[in-house]
Design goal:
The chain is of the alpha/beta class and 485 residues long. It is built from 16 helices and 20 strands. Strands 14-15-16-13-12-17-18 form a 7-stranded mixed β-sheet, with helices on both faces. A 6-stranded mixed β-sheet has the order 9-8-7-10-11-19, sandwiched between helices. The protein has a 3-stranded antiparallel β-sheet with strand order 5-6-20. Bound molecules: nicotinamide-adenine-dinucleotide. The site of nicotinamide-adenine-dinucleotide has 31 residues, from helix 8 and helix 9.
Length: 485
């Protein structure tokens, strides 16, 4: 049976059971490609959060006392089940988010099982420090925090949720996860797989709902010892204001306004193809998408013409079709936000070189939320279009003359998540990489990911790092035991 007909109500996963919200609040869940409501998702209340925290607290002693190998074996099992149900999860992610089926198949769902497998394998690196001096041994215990929360956004729903949950569980914590209320479906399917994997009740709980209701109840709960959040900068600021006075551990992965710096000596064809992807992949709704494209003047005209021509050829369409390059953006509200940003760019004096409005996709998608890939030039770096995150298929172009100027342009925003730098000059690459204010610099590439590397932003793009050892360290407290003998 197609998923659209089989999931009417998404349920919470609490204490190992799939349960409805206690106070009966539900939100409509839309399919972005059609605009139709296809299911309902709980808008859980403080009572549901309380129940989840109690279940997690009850599970914590047993889970935290298991060996690393035992915990890892559950993670491996979940990864295997995600792979087994790959096609169903791909269909669900595409339907729930609007992204092309092929993107969910190539990126989102394979990466979700990889997250579990990667962290299950990290057990091999589980180590601790010891310092010896005459008749004294210092040994550092790495202890789990207790009950923690992982709050994730809608753009890469299962991918970003599992990226947080897997290391938290491996290190011995019990988790309350809150997926985005806009894209809850794959988290619900994951809950079913965790039950099948035999994960002990209460170790992992998923409480669905809006940020205002469920999210606030979670972050304010005194039983939650750490908050790992990925989402918008404004939400992150609010969460920090609630969590910091409680002295909970906090990791914030926030918004971006990422620059691409393109020097004339780059590998032009590779740069052009990659820049097209970094601009429009996932409808521009990846925190790492480059939205400000700065090009050395010598090749600016050629780049502009080629880039616009390639952008025009991208096919916006039904996410289910193999030929579709861009599917729907995630919601009506988000579509309106993107279209509003394009109108603002025009009012700021920007010249729209291609796109610039909604895309009409007929047939079953005539009510869906589509936006044309849009390229704009002629704006200053200080205007709102180049300062505020749009998070859609909209990029701006601007020429530069000198390396100094390129660095200044790259750094001219409040954000500092990622950046791409295109040059064959290795000395320049290192010089510029050192000076760009960003947590990630790609040289001659984009979204090349090694899960062992630190991932995160500076300035208003976040606090802390995920990935590899950084994530393992976030999810524990170190305790030094000093033995005199
Ligand atoms: P959002 O901030 O609106 O929501 C993110 C999550 O936070 C959702 O689950 C939401 O329900 C929850 N939330 C909202 N208010 C809350 C509150 N008061 N308390 C607790 N939880 C609350 O973000 P979004 O619109 O879902 O996602 C898009 C944003 O995420 C963009 O800004 C994008 O750049 C950012 N993002 C960042 C990264 C990164 O790694 N830095 C990755 C992906 C997305």
């Amino acid at each position: 049976m197609p998923l659209t007909q089989s999931v009417e109500k998404i349920l919470n996963y609490i204490g190992g059971e799939l349960v409805a919200p206690q106070e009966g609040g539900w939100l409509d869940n839309f399919e972005p490609a059609t605009g139709a409501v296809y299911s309902q998702v709980p808008d859980s209340s403080a009572a549901d959060v309380e129940r989840a925290v109690a279940a997690a607290q009850a599970a914590f002693p047993g889970w935290s006392q298991l060996s690393f190998e035992a915990r890892a074996s559950y993670l491996f099992r979940i990864a295997d089940l995600i792979d087994r149900d790959m096609s169903q999860l791909v269909e669900a992610e595409s339907m729930d988010n609007g992204k092309p089926l092929k993107r969910a198949a190539e990126v989102d769902i394979p990466r979700s099982s990889k997250n579990f497998r990667f962290y299950a394998g990290a057990v091999l690196n589980a180590r601790t420090e010891a310092y010896t001096s005459p008749q004294v041994l210092n040994v550092t215990l790495r202890q789990p925090l207790g009950v923690v929360t992982c709050i994730s956004p809608w753009n890469l729903p299962l991918y970003l949720l599992t990226w947080k949950v897997a290391p938290a569980l491996l290190m011995g914590n019990c988790v309350i996860a809150k997926p985005s209320e806009v894209t809850p479906l794959t988290a619900y399917l994951l809950a079913q797989l965790c039950r099948e994997a035999g994960l002990p009740a209460g170790v992992f709980n998923i409480v669905h709902g809006s940020g205002g209701n469920t999210g606030n109840a979670i972050i304010g709960h005194p039983g939650i010892k750490a908050v790992s959040f990925t989402g918008g900068t404004r939400t992150g600021r609010h969460i920090a204001s609630v969590v910091a006075p409680q002295f909970k551990k906090l990791s914030l992965e926030l918004g971006g306004k990422n620059p691409n710096l393109i020097f004339a000596d780059c590998d032009y064809d590779k740069m052009l193809a990659t820049t097209l992807r970094s601009s429009f992949a996932n409808q521009g709704q990846i925190c790492l998408c480059g939205s400000r494209i700065y090009v050395e003047r010598g090749i600016y005209g050629k780049f502009r013409d080629d880039f616009v021509e390639r952008s025009r050829r991208l096919k916006v369409g039904d996410p289910r079709l193999a030929e579709t390059d861009l599917g729907a953006v995630v919601s009506r509200v988000h579509q309106e936000k993107i279209l509003g940003a394009i109108e603002r760019a025009k009012a700021e004096g920007g010249k729209v070189l291609c796109g610039g409005g909604p895309a009409e996709v007929g047939g079953r998608c005539s009510g869906g939320y589509f936006v044309q890939p849009t390229v704009i030039e002629g704006l200053s770096e200080q205007c709102a279009t180049n300062q505020e995150e749009i998070f859609g298929p909209v990029v701006t172009l601007q020429p530069f003359d000198r390396e100094e100027e390129a660095v200044a342009l790259a750094n001219a925003t409040q954000y500092g998540l990622s950046s791409s730098l295109w040059t064959r000059d290795l000395s320049r690459a290192m010089r510029v990489a050192e000076r760009i204010e960003a947590g990630v610099v790609w040289v001659n590439g984009w979204m090349v990911r090694d899960l062992r590397t630190p991932f995160g932003g500076v300035k208003q793009s976040g606090v802390g790092r995920e990935g590899g050892d950084d994530a393992l360290s976030f999810w524990i407290e170190k305790k030094n035991v000093c033995i005199s003998y």
